[in-house]
């Protein structure tokens, strides 16, 4: 009799097992094949996502659209925030109507259609078809004084681009919220160790896709063509969609089982607004008069389980909410850090007159420049190196010495590294503005836009990217661990969705802060720069973010300490017990 590998999960009505025949070694082989297919799909999807976001600010700031620097940065923050904020929508649709398999397949299809908008608007005919002709700058009377306010023109093609970016965000968020748990379903029968290893490889797949995208796609977009550069992400999504459909016979698919969102809302209404809840019960005389045991059975969790799950949610939510300012800092590396890098000296990959350069390139009078988005590789490489080092060396050593910090302590450490990253960015911006105010600038052309940059090398941005990468290891990964481990099994999907949603809230709050400070009189209001930020005070913006992060980090330490004390008490085992199976 073979030894059991893991406790089998009960077969759900409507669940479909792999269609392919299997021998004695078949289950493990096909489970690994299904997991590998999910990892490959995730790598391609992340390559497409980073290919879209890496140079989005530069694309909107180019002569194709002539968006101002703060307008392009705001659009990037909105897209990044929505791609996280909409995560619960995709999860809810999968739980209630579609199931995870159909949700991922339809999301990839929407992803493919929406991502085609960017290459379609990268050439004049496509732009005119979707956006119309670019309006000419209106000629008006000269400004009577240098301090008079100037109206900021509406960005060209903004409705179409924002609609396309929001559809892309919906598709990306739905893939993010469903593909992770769908992949875990494929290897669940192989035991807990296989599930844990799957999540490790899943995170690696994300970063591997980012490396491939930033090395190849970002270079093509900045130095060759936005049309070709944005066509590659479309190809990646199309290939991911094909692989997902091709691997369908080996997938385990589960039908939608319903969602506890309605129950959570009812319990919240009952606790927060008892008078309104009594009016709701008064409308349903029959349901109000029946005892819980006399009511007809309903699918899903029992009322007692709903109450326990609601208590867990109330307990976990304050911890996750205090991470929101960290996400405000984290998403700066794909928005304002990029904008700052465009105004630092970006060296050429080849010398000005190298002996091995082609005659065609000499005739153009230019050479390839290092893509500013390549600095994101500092963040990705740190994650790729430190995650296995931490997992195989540092954590086991700390565990043997009984010094291994908890997930909440790691998150506090990650917030500290995020704080130091934005402080370093603010100090660098102060130094950059010092050169600008002394008229020490260099003109550099990035794509088709001329920037007046400080003579400081862009390599000075590496420390802030390295620090934000270290913060990701200590804040983002333990945050996922905390959300997954502290949730009861019936609410893991919902709480993971809330975790991603709150990270999107952080990005949108950062976007709102940029918009507020871009108003006349604000630190980021620089209408005379036409895409440059040399008259802005972005250093004060960075220091403001650092102050917000510092205050909320102290609040997080207090809330986390209180949470750990309550969780270790005897009451936690009775009120917040979880089925860890």
Automatic annotation (TrEMBL):
The catalysed reaction is: carnosine(out) + n H(+)(out) = carnosine(in) + n H(+)(in); N-acetyl-D-muramoyl-L-alanyl-D-isoglutamine(out) + n H(+)(out) = N-acetyl-D-muramoyl-L-alanyl-D-isoglutamine(in) + n H(+)(in); glycylglycylglycine(out) + n H(+)(out) = glycylglycylglycine(in) + n H(+)(in); L-histidine(out) + n H(+)(out) = L-histidine(in) + n H(+)(in)
Q: Which GO terms describe its cellular component?
A: endosome membrane; lysosomal membrane
Tell me the superkingdom of the source.
Eukaryota
* UniProt keyword terms in alphabetical order: Endosome, Glycoprotein, Immunity, Innate immunity, Lysosome, Membrane, Peptide transport, Protein transport, Symport, Transmembrane, Transmembrane helix, Transport
Its principal location? membrane
Region feature Disordered, mapped onto this chain: 1-23
Annotated TM spans: 37-60, 72-94, 101-120, 160-179, 200-221, 227-252, 312-330, 373-390, 411-428, 465-484, 496-520, 540-560
Which InterPro entries does the entry link to? MFS_trans_sf, POT_fam
Q: How does it sit in the membrane?
A: Multi-pass membrane protein
Keyword Magnesium belongs to the record: no
Family, as annotated: Belongs to the major facilitator superfamily. Proton-dependent oligopeptide transporter (POT/PTR) (TC 2.A.17) family.
| Protein name stated in the entry | Solute carrier family 15 member 3
Protein's organism: Rhinopithecus roxellana
Its organism's taxonomic lineage begins at: Eukaryota, Metazoa, Chordata, Craniata, Vertebrata
């Amino acid at each position: 009799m073979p030894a059991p590998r893991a406790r089998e999960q009960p077969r759900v009505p409507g669940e479909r097992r792999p269609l392919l025949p299997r021998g004695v070694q078949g289950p493990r082989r096909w489970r690994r094949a299904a997991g590998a297919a999910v990892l490959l799909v995730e790598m391609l999807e992340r390559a497409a996502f980073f290919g879209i976001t890496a140079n989005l600010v530069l694309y909107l700031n180019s002569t194709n659209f002539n968006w101002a620097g703060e307008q392009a940065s705001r659009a990037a923050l909105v897209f990044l925030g929505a791609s996280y904020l909409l995560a619960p929508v995709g999860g809810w649709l999968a739980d209630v109507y579609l199931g995870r398999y159909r949700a991922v397949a339809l999301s990839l299809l929407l992803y493919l259609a929406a991502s085609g908008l960017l290459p379609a608007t990268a050439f004049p005919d496509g732009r005119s078809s979707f956006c119309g002709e670019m309006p000419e700058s209106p000629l008006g009377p000269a400004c009577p004084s240098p301090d008079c306010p100037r109206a900021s023109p509406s960005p060209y093609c903004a409705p179409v681009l924002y609609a396309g970016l929001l559809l892309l965000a919906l598709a990306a968020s739905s893939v993010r919220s469903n593909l992770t748990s769908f992949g875990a379903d494929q290897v669940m029968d192989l035991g807990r160790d296989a599930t844990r290893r799957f999540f490790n490889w899943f995170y690696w797949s994300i970063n591997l896709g980012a490396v491939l995208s930033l090395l190849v796609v970002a270079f093509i977009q900045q130095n060759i063509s936005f049309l070709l550069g944005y066509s590659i992400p479309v190809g990646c999504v199309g290939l991911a969609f094909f692989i997902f459909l091709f691997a369908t016979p080996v997938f385990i698919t589960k039908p939608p089982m319903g969602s506890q969102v309605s129950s959570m809302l009812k319990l919240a209404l009952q606790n927060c607004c008892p008078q309104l809840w009594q009016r709701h019960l008064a409308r349903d005389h029959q349901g109000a008069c029946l005892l819980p045991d006399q009511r007809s059975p309903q699918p899903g969790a029992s009322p007692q389980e709903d109450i326990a799950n609601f208590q867990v949610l109330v307990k976990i939510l304050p911890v996750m909410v205090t991470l929101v300012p960290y996400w405000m800092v984290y998403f700066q590396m794909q928005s304002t850090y990029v904008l700052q890098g465009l105004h630092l000296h970006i060296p050429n990959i080849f010398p000005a007159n190298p002996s091995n350069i082609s005659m065609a390139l000499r005739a153009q009078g230019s050479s390839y420049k290092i893509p500013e988005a390549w600095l994101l590789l500092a963040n990705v490489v740190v994650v790729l190196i430190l995650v296995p080092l931490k997992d195989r060396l540092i954590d086991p050593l700390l565990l043997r010495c009984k010094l291994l910090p908890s997930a909440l302590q790691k998150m506090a450490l990650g917030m500290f590294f995020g704080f130091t990253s934005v402080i370093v960015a603010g100090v660098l911006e102060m130094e950059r503005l010092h050169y600008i105010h002394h008229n020490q600038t260099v003109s550099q052309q990035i794509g088709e836009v001329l920037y007046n940059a400080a003579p400081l090398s862009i390599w000075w941005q590496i420390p802030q990217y390295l620090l934000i990468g270290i913060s990701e290891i200590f804040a983002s990964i333990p945050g996922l661990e905390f959300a997954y481990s502290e949730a009861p099994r019936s609410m893991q999907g919902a709480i993971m969705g809330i975790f991603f949603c709150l990270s999107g809230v952080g990005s949108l709050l950062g976007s709102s802060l940029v918009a507020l400070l871009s108003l006349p009189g604000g630190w980021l209001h620089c209408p005379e720069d036409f895409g440059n930020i040399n008259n802005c005070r972005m250093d004060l913006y960075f220091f403001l973010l650092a102050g917000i992060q510092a205050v909320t980090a102290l609040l997080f330490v207090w809330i986390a300490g209180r949470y750990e004390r309550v969780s270790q008490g005897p009451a936690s085992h009775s009120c917040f017990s979880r089925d860890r199976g």
